[in-house]
Specification:
Blueprint (H helix, E strand, L loop, with lengths): L1 H17 L8 H14 L25 H16 L4 H29 L4 H12 L2 H7 L5 H20 L4 H15 L7 H17 L5 H33 L7 H11 L21 H4 L7 H11 E2 L4 E2 L2 H29 L5 H21 L13 H23 L2 E6 L8 E6 L5 H37 L3
Antiparallel strand pairs: 1-2, 3-4
Length: 474
């Protein structure tokens, strides 16, 4: 696990130092918020002329900007160490993102341990997430996705931890704090809030001894209030501030659209974008036709694996197919095996919340592309990839175990006659009686899969990313 983290940090930090801002989507707009805070020592209004983008006519100060708040201390340190260097401020913000990405990898490992997937599966899941090309790219520049991924997986861990502790008030408070961090990350992650509520109330009957009225009041009222209190302490100030500044618009999206309509350049105002909804299409048009010369599902799948720059540099069809060959079969096997395990234990509590966590970003991305801005990007649907990476890792380990179980079974081999003309039956026994040897063979197979996965990433890094960085294209 330490090796995975070390290699990931080296690659992402190296990329962060070399990546030009012209190849980092939305980074220029997003950086305006933490730079303003570090320079002025106060939070900006969304319509402050100092940070409004001249093209879009709005700013990211209207929406949640938890990643900006985390970047501010890094930027302040950079201003002290390297004065009057704008490049140092950009690198500082990017390093804060690299830190969030590294913490997210640790969270995936811990999530696997909490879900009792085992050490091998947990490390494999962390590796699958860490060295997905798109994830390394998202770690190399300043954005809100890495905090979204981290907070999503953190909330899952805190839910599992609270359940282990029978939803103690302390655990509920920490869960609320985690939900508060998530609320400040990115709107695409908000499905986890619904998932956490469902997970809690579906576990009440099993985890609580509800006999008296006070037991019911504690389970249904007091503990949810503690969760809400923890969340409110962390994120409540932002939404209250928005409501006071923007006439009750605590989310800030409606005011952002109005500001964009006033200050946006011609053709970029919300009323002039010609969205699919404005053209009279239904959301299913994303799947049954090409729009703006782009097929939505294919573009999302490709950019989920790895599309760099402003959706202009793709890892290539060969690498794309190889990644699909790793993910799709292992995901199917892992899901089936997990369902089978849940059937044996009778514990289905994690399935519906897990499905909501994975599906919500996907559904929100569909709505956004249809109703607001056609952007079929994989980064918008990646919040639930922590769960999917665990299922993929579980599927790979299960597949390796199954293959070795088959190979270790006795196989009958029949031959008609021996040298003297007598019929003869031979038995070929490929059996391993030592369980320890079997486990070593499984581990060897998993390590071989990891090496293949890493070599696939190294191939992309050497043959695509390094040449483009050296030429200044990426």
């Amino acid at each position: 696990m330490v090796l995975v983290l070390a290699v990931f940090c080296l690659m992402s930090i190296w990329w962060a130092f070399r990546l030009p801002m012209s190849s980092a989507p939305d980074e220029y707009m997003r950086l305006q918020v933490p730079l303003f805070i570090a320079e002025n020592g106060c939070l900006p209004r969304g319509d402050d002329p100092a940070i409004i983008n001249e093209v879009w006519g709005t700013s990211y100060a209207f929406s949640v900007y938890g990643s900006s708040l985390i970047a501010v201390p890094f930027i302040c340190v950079a201003k002290l160490v390297v004065p009057n260097s704008s490049a140092a401020l950009i690198i500082a913000a990017r390093l804060s993102n690299c830190l969030l990405a590294a913490l997210n990898i640790v969270c995936i490992y811990l999530m696997g341990k909490k879900l009792k997937f085992g050490n091998l599966t947990s490390i494999l899941a962390a590796t699958l997430f860490a060295f997905l090309p798109q994830n390394v790219f998202l770690a190399a520049y300043f954005n809100s996705e890495q905090l979204e991924f981290l907070s999503t997986n953190l909330v899952i861990i805190l839910c599992l931890n609270a359940r282990e502790n029978r939803w103690s008030y302390r655990s509920c408070f920490f869960l609320g704090c985690g939900l508060g961090v998530l609320a400040l990350s990115y709107y695409y992650a908000y499905g986890v809030i619904i998932a956490a509520i469902i997970f809690y109330f579906s576990s009440i009957k099993k985890d609580f001894c509800l006999r008296t009225k006070s037991d019911y009041i504690s389970a249904i009222l007091y503990r949810p209030l503690v969760v809400f209190s923890g969340s409110f302490i962390v994120c409540g100030w932002f939404f209250i501030r928005n409501a006071l500044l923007y006439n009750g618009d605590f989310i800030g999206m409606a005011t952002s659209s109005k500001t964009s309509e006033i200050y946006g350049a011609s053709g970029f105002k919300p009323s002039q974008r010609g969205t699919l909804r404005q053209q009279g299409y239904l959301p299913d048009c994303l799947f049954n036709q090409m729009n703006y010369s782009v097929y939505w599902p294919l573009s999302v799948a490709q950019s989920f694996i790895g599309t760099f720059g402003y959706m202009s540099i793709f890892v290539g069809n060969t690498s794309f197919v190889l990644y699909l060959l790793v993910f799709i079969p292992s995901l199917v096997i892992g899901l089936i095996r997990r369902l089978f395990t849940a059937k044996q234990t009778g514990d289905y509590l994690t399935f519906i919340p897990g499905l909501i966590t994975v599906a919500t970003p996907f559904l929100l991305s569909i709505y956004y592309s249809w109703a607001s801005d056609y952007q079929p990007q994989g980064r918008y649907v990646m919040a639930g990839f922590g769960i999917l990476s665990l299922l993929c890792a579980f599927g790979i380990v299960s597949l390796c175990q199954g293959l070795w179980t088959l190979l270790c079974a006795e196989i009958e081999v029949k031959s008609c006659k021996d040298e003297s003309g007598n019929s003869l039956e031979k038995r070929l026994a490929i059996s391993i009686n030592d369980y320890g040897v079997f486990i070593k063979l499984v581990k060897f197979s998993v390590v071989a899969t990891v090496l293949f996965y890493l070599l696939l990433f190294v191939r992309i890094f050497i043959h695509l990313i390094i040449p483009l960085l050296s030429s200044g294209v990426l």
